[in-house]
Design goal:
- Residues 2-31 form the HTH tetR-type domain.
- This is Bacterial regulatory protein, tetR family.
- Residues 45-155 form the Tetracyclin repressor-like C-terminal domain.
- This protein is mostly helical.
- It folds into two domains: 1-34, no CATH class; 36-161, Tetracycline Repressor, domain 2 (Orthogonal Bundle), CATH 1.10.357.10.
- Helices cover 67% and strands 0% of the residues.
- It is elongated, with a radius of gyration of 18 Å.
- The mean pLDDT is 82.
């Protein structure tokens, strides 16, 4: 992404873009702030009565497309992070944290139900799926499918939480 590309897409001149944002990093920071995961707000999270049910209920076609779009954006931002470290925080806040926050809440609910032991590392486990999805999209350049996400839930998340996939 370049300022020229942004200006062309906005049908504006570069000077107009620079009047609004002093640098490319500022423009990217504002764009990232628009990507927050509204569909992962606490009051919209599923509560099916089981950790697996809750995690699977989050796997929706629009959520998969949205996650891949955000990660493609992130791939363009990664190169800029060394010059503008504040972008790392913005990426984490806009792209990783909404899913991790949802996972934390679902894991804590499972603990409260007695489905999961209270001694699991909720913080670490909450980052597993967002991290593996990012790896798949950014490094392997493979799509994120429903089957892939279900395999992460059944093969990684649930065993790590001490829950059997079938119950």
């Amino acid at each position: 992404m370049t300022i020229d590309m942004v200006a062309a897409r906005a049908k504006a001149g570069k000077a107009t873009v620079y009047r609004r944002w002093e640098s490319k990093a500022e423009l990217v920071l504002e764009a990232l702030s628009c990507l927050r995961g509204a569909d992962l707000a606490e009051d919209s999270l599923p509560d099916t009565g089981s950790l697996r049910g809750d995690l699977v209920a989050l796997v929706k076609p629009h959520a998969i497309v949205d996650a891949e779009r955000k990660l493609r954006i992130m791939s363009g931002v990664v190169a800029m992070i060394s010059k503008a470290p504040e972008l790392a925080d913005a990426v984490r806040t806009a792209i990783v944290e909404p899913r991790a926050r949802a996972n934390r809440l679902l894991l804590r609910r499972a603990i409260a139900r007695g489905e999961v032991s209270a001694d699991i590392d909720v913080e670490q486990l909450a980052l597993v799926t967002p991290s593996m999805v990012a790896y798949r999209v950014l490094l392997l350049r493979e799509p994120v499918t429903r089957d892939y996400l279900i395999s992460l839930i059944d093969g990684v998340m649930l065993p790590a939480a001490g829950v059997r996939a079938d119950g």
